[in-house]
Amino acid sequence: MLTINIDSGLCRYHIEGITQDAHRELSLLYDNGAKDESPEFADYFIRIDDTSFIRKFLRPQKVVKIEGQRPFNPVPPAKVLPSVEWAMNWCLAAFEHQKLVFHSSVVVKNGRAFIFPAVSGSGKTTLATYLGANGWHMFSDELAIVDLNTNSVNPLFRPSSLKNESIDVIKETCSDCHFSKITKNTHKGDIGHAKLYCFEKFKSFVKTPIEAVVFPKFKRGSDTNISILSKAEGFAAILRHNFNYDVLGVDGFKTLSLITQNSRFYYVEYSDLADMAALLDEILEGQC
Amino acid sequence: MLIPELIKKQICLLEVEGLSKNQWFRLFRVLRHKSLTASFYTRLVNKNKQHEIPLELHSAFLSAVTFSDAQKRQVDVQLQKLCELFAVSGIEFVMLKGAAYIASDTPNSSGRLMSDIDICVHRSDLSRTEKALKQVSWQVKELDNHDEKYYREWSHELPPYYHPFDGVSLDVHHTLYPPVSAKHIDIQKLFKESIVTNFGVKSPSPEWLVFHSAIHLIANEDVENGLRDLIDIYLLLTQGENKIDISALVFLFENSGFKTELSLLKQLLWDYFDYNLPLEASGHLQSGSFQYQLRLWAIRRAVCPESDFVANTNFRLARFINYVIGYSQKMPMSLLAKHLLFKGGRNIVKAILGDFYFRKNAT
């Protein structure tokens, strides 16, 4: 079993007990952001354990232990990679209470950030990955992390976690990405990870103010339909995708209020990524 | 050294001066695992030692404090709601444990996390209490038949309740220790000596707070949060605004049948905090029996948190002995045998097939 240390830009993870396959994949996905030798300090400690001595040999099982807690069901060793990625997200959702955390992907163009808050299955990761490979910078596929009392969102050095059909969609449209092996039949279906940038390029990304909040909904076969939301509707909608607004209290409200005051809000149904990208460019240019 | 240095010197005695970054890294892992981060930070601030924390950890400590502040707000709201609910039905209740510390603003309440809210009602009010809770959407957590029977017939509390909208759990006690044990706690005295705090909520007197925390720690099979409980007791005894009346405390332990537990508490406070609980003047005699020695051997190790980051904390035998002793104190032998057979059977299956065997959807 191996150890790897990952620098995601915002925080550092120390991960022990990973399988050789997972170590190889993580090393490729994080390139210079991943190191075998332990730094003096890490923000989060993750350990992959066997669930019992017998289950090392009989229908082997691995469980992810995050800071001593085991929030997920165990998985066979071949399915460890997505569990590690989910564990890295879980760390931020559970322990990061000095920033406002949304379930949302984030993209940036011309120093202006768009965030795509949405429930799982809405296509936010696919959309952000497509945009990241087509003229935008993808800051995150899963979590928007905003500094308190600002509307600035942080870049995260994390691969996209693509599910099922979206893996092939991105493989066809974004051939320059590095793709991990596909993990079949997880509880979320087939999972593949895509890396858009190397660590050096990521380091050039800086915190960026949010300019638009777009609630995306992939709907097979639909045209691209946009609805403009009022600030009040946007505030209420974005709140549903937040992890720690209630924990942060007054600071959470002030931050959400700043985002609302400085953003335009949209709800968009789409099925064609290129068409959606064109629409987002129009929004960026203030044409809608 | 019986108690590892990280646990005793750093967590209990707050001797953090000059720690290396790697030592802080290890210390922080234990604190976060045991949900002690925010309370440790608060204790450091009280000693004006927070500047010892390395820069890399500031945000993580402050995050934990923010989370504990949010939990305190949540408890305040729930206390108010429970007060209003029970006032309508005329049900008298006393807060217990973490919620009582918050309601009474005790020195250990700052930064302390809890997994649920505990209250105590009169046994005669149990069915009215359940009815009132269900009327405002509280629901009983789903349990297997054995655990349901355990709570309903043998335990000192109802099966746990949870509120699906508020995301809060509630334990309703009718006494502080299982009635099937040979011990008897005078709950009328708990109500009579309770102190009225915010919103008219009743909280146990400081002596009752120490007593309850101690029997929860020592006369119990589960010591998962043992160090947190011991820190509670230490802070209540040494830093509370209301000075503890030691002779009243001794009377409470001895009159309820927990004389041995008082001796064990005294020893634990000495082991972990170098604190001498002054029992001598009250005439309390420390037991020297074999049973006492066995329990002491087990509990002083079991309280120490098991962690990958602290050497020599794998006290599995001590934890097992403490587990059996804890249950044997609570139940008559025939019931204990039946209960351990059931729990033991499950544990054997877990040891063979994995800890998650009984969790739904595990592969």
Automatic annotation (TrEMBL), chain A:
Which Gene3D superfamilies does this UniProt record tie to the protein?
P-loop containing nucleotide triphosphate hydrolases (3.40.50.300)
Superkingdom of the source species: Bacteria
Name the UniProt record assigns to this protein: HprK-related kinase A
Give the organism the record lists.
Alteromonas lipolytica
TrEMBL record, chain B:
Q: Which Pfam families match?
A: NTP_transf_5 (PF14907)
Question: Which domain of life does the protein's organism represent?
Answer: Bacteria
Any idea what this protein is called? Nucleotidyltransferase
Q: What organism does the UniProt record list as the source?
A: Alteromonas lipolytica
